[in-house]
Amino acid sequence: MKCARGGSFSKGELQRFGNIELSPSAGVLNYGQGLFEGLKAYRKKDGNILLFRPQENALRLNIGAERMCMPSPTVAQFVEAVKATVLANKRWVPPPGKGSLYIRPLLMGSGAVLGLAPAPEYTFLIYVSPVGNYFKEGVTPINLVIEHELHRATPGGTGGVKTIGNYAAVLKAQSAAKAKGYSDVLYLDCVHKKYLEEVSSCNIFVVKDNVISTPAIQGTILPGITRKSIIDVARSQGFQVEERLVAVDELLEADEVFCTGTAVVVSPVGSITHKGRRVSYGEGGFGAVSQQLYTVL
Ligand code: PMP
């Protein structure tokens, strides 16, 4: 789908996956004017396909587009385009329990622009790929390391929307962590350097005495759709859930820690390394609370 600045998107068409043509001075290439979404389609036991909450992704893209000075497809256009793309690729949706079809909507300033300014033209496209587990550990616990020097988001910045530049900001810390054998990086706030933010591509939850805490959405972390679902499920199961500032020291006392995201779904955290000190959780699987939430989700 294409749209001129300030205009509305026209109906798109299905195309075989392949390279796309872009001006070297496209806004997205020069000024990072791009947003993406990530959602999944699952094959149910009866053979039908389940799309997990596409409206939520559409709304998040709309909010992100406002922050990035971009027009956005409407919720209805977004959902219709996702459905059409999944339908055209339905043979790639794995059988139940064998993974899912990952769906990547991408909105970008595709028009040419030389001086710093929003692009004059926008492209919205969607591509898909079958995927298995995000972490090679599967649902065995992941091992995180806390990053002290590099931050992914600053107050007033774009950390709260799913813009491509946020992911450029994490590449260095994430690659270094993986080279040392960690699964991923846990970021702290960049002002006090003591409150948990999130992992490179998922949100974090800390459980102590059956109370579930997670960093509040304050502009520097992504409002995860899985995060919201887990909070709803946990509350409906009678758990107390607190969205607040969660201090790094609370990790020392926690009973269990887990991450949520479209890619990771719910992943137990087995250890977190903080300033060279490794704190371990659980006995090699889900803790009792995350197991219960995972089963209900
Ligand atoms: N934080 C970041 C930085 C992410 O990239 C993601 C993945 N979209 C999440 C959290 C989890 O969000 P969701 O549950 O919507 O996938």
TrEMBL record:
Pathway field: Amino-acid biosynthesis; L-valine biosynthesis; L-valine from pyruvate: step 4/4; Amino-acid biosynthesis; L-leucine biosynthesis; L-leucine from 3-methyl-2-oxobutanoate: step 4/4; Amino-acid biosynthesis; L-isoleucine biosynthesis; L-isoleucine from 2-oxobutanoate: step 4/4
Superkingdom to which the source organism belongs: Eukaryota
GO CC terms in record: chloroplast
Known cofactor(s): pyridoxal 5'-phosphate
GO molecular function, one term: branched-chain-amino-acid transaminase activity
GO biological process terms on file: amino acid biosynthetic process; branched-chain amino acid biosynthetic process
Catalysed conversion reaction: L-valine + 2-oxoglutarate = 3-methyl-2-oxobutanoate + L-glutamate; L-leucine + 2-oxoglutarate = 4-methyl-2-oxopentanoate + L-glutamate; L-isoleucine + 2-oxoglutarate = (S)-3-methyl-2-oxopentanoate + L-glutamate
Full protein name: Branched-chain-amino-acid aminotransferase
Organism of derivation: Hevea brasiliensis
Species classification: Eukaryota, Viridiplantae, Streptophyta, Embryophyta, Tracheophyta
